[in-house]
Design brief:
With 863 residues, this protein is an alpha+beta fold. It is built from 27 helices and 16 strands. The two termini are 51 Å apart. GO terms for molecular function: DNA binding; flavin adenine dinucleotide binding; FMN binding; oxidoreductase activity; zinc ion binding.
């Protein structure tokens, strides 16, 4: 299975693969140790044939469908010369008729730059043989050549092989590092590569490669003792795959031609050398007259068959390419009910095909609106409701063509593959279980190994193991009466829990669980709840213990997902091996309960079902994954939790609008369903604290694995989190400003003194500043010139970091462990924000100084 997200995903997949092989390995076979060097995929021998066949530029097996020989007749820049991004308009012309439909894509096979290829050949010591003809054959009879490689009857050279088939500028995967370690002669380099491949070194590998986008070529230049045999070229270097681009022309308007609109990838990371896209940099250096082999693939976007139907197109940036093809095709058919919303950064700098849109508009063939996000004038934003002027939307239902992201979510692909494989393994286990005479067909795999012996003991906590048998029937016992006032008790009444336990509550919860097939003695349940209550702050937020216990015992429809999540956290923290044995079973119950009830939880105003408790269960589960160092699953689940919080509208809640949210009027969500509303200040406080717990975990996950946050702080108007006691007393000293005002010069006093903020609030403020500092870091390399407006925002961020750093409490005495951990993380986050904001800027100024160009240096930012 490939490494989807650099080293981070290996921390999730490697243990799972090890378990998989143990399950499916037939008896009598052993797994080869990782220290063994496997045989190469190919053999490279000198070409001895007298007849030299002409080498194919691109083999047909590389590209799906028929290849067309086309001539590059135009390669012009569409953006302004001073604009930071280079976008090209390419025109390819064939000598024969070609057929394609609007929405189809062109397939091109890129080549590595001659400079990079020469550098690699010299580094590996292959330059003397680089241009000699060679033959490539499979290393064994049961093997085939990698897809796209020249066959045994086609001569090639090492230089051609590296240029056209080896992706030497991709980010190295863990498999590359593992193989490279076999070829290093320096023991220190070998040890470092081995360390990268350990569970403890995966984070370092991610920082070294994926986070900064370091390439395979750059890694080889740093580990200079590696001597790689030529036969391992296919094993060491990934295949240089074809790239797909949406066709930006209609064959009816441009016969025998294919037009492309391509953004040249060129950006900066922490490394000094800019990062470049392999294919787009190749396209940028192509000269007119170059002959290319181009494939055509059926696209996913299609025009409606009925030309009388109006269409609405939304195309930001180069995403407008297929829209141009569709509009051209529609105009030739005299279909004029076309609406285009085009998004760009500047209406004068990167306004693609501007003259064409304006010409169509004059012909009354197009209704056209542009959204320029960086222009200093009021403009539309692509995707917002302001882009829907009612007067311009036709009365008849328009055909809104779907928008597809250029890159499918790799995280989603990984999760789907894992689920599919787990389902297959479970099916295999069930078949084996039914055939094995020593295995009971009714025993659940969730059953702890020692549960049966525990049942036989008179005073055992576990009355019976978990049962997943649908044939089991349980009659729900009568519930003890519990007053509603229990849910309004102050949090202080639970500080001595479980010493002053509530037996009726625990008995009621135990009976509720018995109805679900889980029999736990009330005393054991009391111990598990106590473990969670004492550790609940580690989940990133505070919850009202009375509300939770009331929900789990007296509510007509308790959220069982929350109960399972609480027990799961208790199983993780406990040191009792008997309780530990239940962890995997409780984890499965938690996940299945969340999945089964997610749709139900989205039904806002569900009456007896409160989605706030469901949201709490989701956050506890995501934090559990963090506890287990399962970073990918933690971040995926956190993203889902944040999106659920947004759907509930929590990111818009604050105490100043409490009356609005608790009114008898039923506010409607965008889906036309009633939105969830807090019923009192305690529930409001829990919701706000819960949202910020989600955001904190989301930001932490982004810092760990490099993924963007699912909800940026700018989108949140909810106030800073405050303690539940403040909400209960209706005293809200910190409930003043939203996150949007944090870095505003008009509200600079918001962060003037944070000495009285609670620890969770300090941690979140620090994480938000890390997020903003990272944005400045990205902008400073993407902007050709740093404007005064940019420097003004930079100084505001710098001032906010300085004031938080100066007033943040540094003493830990008198604080509980969770507060101490929050403060330590807050201090570390502020240090990260400082380095993030200033480190790369210093590097940029040093580069300018070395180049003798200090004209743009702005020393005022350092004052």
């Amino acid at each position: 299975m490939t490494n989807i997200l650099g080293g981070i995903s290996d921390g999730v997949i490697d243990p799972w693969i090890e378990m998989l092989f143990k399950k499916i390995l037939p008896p009598g076979l052993d797994i080869l140790p990782d220290t063994d060097l496997h045989a190469p995929m190919i053999n490279i021998t000198p070409w001895n044939s007298e007849e030299i066949a002409e080498e194919s530029a691109v083999r047909a097996q590389v590209v799906h469908g028929t290849l067309h020989t086309m001539n590059l007749t135009q390669n012009t820049r569409m953006t302004e010369p001073t604009w930071y991004q280079d976008v090209r308009h390419l025109v390819l012309r064939a000598d024969e008729d070609i057929r394609y439909q609007p929405g189809d894509v062109a397939i091109l096979h890129p080549e590595n730059s001659p400079e990079d290829v020469e550098t690699l050949l010299k580094r590996l010591g292959w330059e003397a043989e680089a241009d000699k003809p060679i033959r490539i054959t499979p290393s064994a009879g049961d093997r085939s050549l990698p897809l796209g490689y020249p066959g045994p009857n086609t001569p090639t050279t090492l230089r051609s092989l590296i240029t056209k088939h080896a992706d030497i500028n991709s980010v190295p995967r863990k498999s590359f590092v593992e193989l490279l370690a076999h070829f290093t002669k320096d023991q220190m380099e070998t040890d470092k590569l081995h360390e990268f491949c350990t569970a403890e070194g995966l984070d370092d590998l991610f920082d070294y490669t994926t986070r900064v986008r370091r390439t395979i070529l750059e890694v080889l230049l740093e580990f200079r003792s590696a001597v790689v045999p030529k036969d391992y070229v296919a094993d060491l270097f990934p295949e240089l795959r074809p790239r797909q681009f949406s066709i930006a022309s209609s064959s009816s308007v441009h016969p025998r031609e294919i037009h492309l609109c391509v953004a040249i990838v060129n950006y900066r990371t922490k490394l000094r050398v800019p990062r470049k896209g392999v294919c787009t940099s190749w396209l940028a250096r192509l000269e007119t007259g170059t002959v290319l082999n181009v494939g055509i693939k059926r696209g996913t976007m299609h025009l409606p068959r009925d030309d009388r139907k109006p269409i609405i197109l939304v195309g930001p940036g180069t995403g407008v390419a297929p829209m141009r093809a569709m509009i051209e095709e529609r105009v030739t058919r005299d279909a004029t009910e076309n609406t285009l919303y085009f998004g760009c950064r500047s209406a004068t700098a990167d306004h693609h095909f501007r003259e064409e849109w304006e010409a169509y508009q004059k012909q009354s063939a197009l209704t056209y609106r542009v959204a320029a996000s960086r222009d200093q004038v009021p403009s539309l934003i692509v995707g917002s409701k302001t882009m829907q002027p009612p007067a311009e939307i036709p009365d008849s239902p328009p055909e809104v063509l779907p928008r597809y992201p250029e890159h499918t979510s790799r995280t989603q692909q990984l999760q789907e593959k894992i689920k599919e494989m787990e389902a297959r393994i479970q099916a295999i286990e069930q078949r084996r279980g039914s055939l094995s005479p020593t295995t009971s067909s009714t025993r659940s795999i969730s059953n702890p190994p020692d549960a049966l012996s525990a049942v036989q003991q008179p005073l055992a906590y576990f009355d019976s193991p978990i049962s997943n048998d649908s044939s089991d029937t349980h009659s729900t016992p009568p519930m003890p009466f519990i007053s509603d006032s229990f849910a309004s008790l102050p949090e202080a009444d639970f500080t001595s829990y479980p010493n002053s336990g509530y037996p009726r509550i625990e008995v009621a919860i135990a009976r509720r669980m018995a109805a679900e097939g889980i029999n736990i003695h009330p005393e054991l349940l009391r111990s598990m709840l106590a473990i969670f209550v004492h550790r609940r702050g580690l989940t990133g937020y505070k919850l009202h213990t009375g509300r939770v216990l009331y929900n789990l015992s007296a509510s007509p429809q308790p959220v069982l997902a929350l109960l399972y999540a609480i027990l799961l956290a208790a199983c993780h923290f406990t040191e009792d091996p008997e309780l530990k044995s239940w962890e995997s079973a409780i984890l499965e119950r938690t996940k299945s309960e969340i999945e089964a009830n997610i749709a139900r939880a989205h039904e806002y105003g569900g009456g007896e079902y409160n989605p706030l408790y469901h949201l709490q269960a989701m956050l506890i589960l995501s934090q559990y994954y963090y506890f287990k160092s399962r970073m990918l699953e933690a971040h995926v689940n956190t993203n889902s939790t944040v999106q659920f919080a947004v759907a509930m509208g929590i990111h818009r809640l604050n105490s100043r609008s409490l009356d609005h949210y608790t009114t008898t009027v039923s506010p409607q969500s965008g889906l036309g369903r009633e939105r969830w509303r807090p019923q009192d200040v305690i529930e409001l406080g829990e919701a706000i604290n819960l949202l910020w717990g989600c955001v904190a975990r989301d930001l932490v996950g982004g810092l760990i694995n490099g993924l963007p946050p699912s909800l940026s702080p700018e989108e949140i108007t909810t106030v800073w989190p405050v303690s539940l006691s403040d909400f209960i007393k209706n005293s809200l000293p910190d409930d003043r400003h939203s996150v949007k005002e944090l870095l505003s010069s008009d509200f600079s006093y918001v962060v003037a003194d944070v000495s009285q903020d609670n620890a969770a609030c300090l941690l979140i403020k620090a994480l938000v500043l890390v997020y903003y500092a990272g944005k400045f870091d990205t902008e400073r390399f993407s902007k050709p010139e740093l404007t005064e407006e940019w420097w003004s925002r930079f100084r505001n961020c710098d001032r906010a970091i300085e004031r938080i750093s100066d007033t943040m409490p540094s003493y830990f005495s008198g604080r509980n462990p969770e507060e101490v951990s929050h403060l330590v993380l807050a201090h570390a986050a502020i240090d990260c924000a400082t380095l993030q904001l200033h480190g790369a800027l210093a590097e940029k100024e040093l580069v300018r100084s070395a180049q003798g160009d200090l004209r743009h240096a702005n020393t005022s930012a350092w004052i």
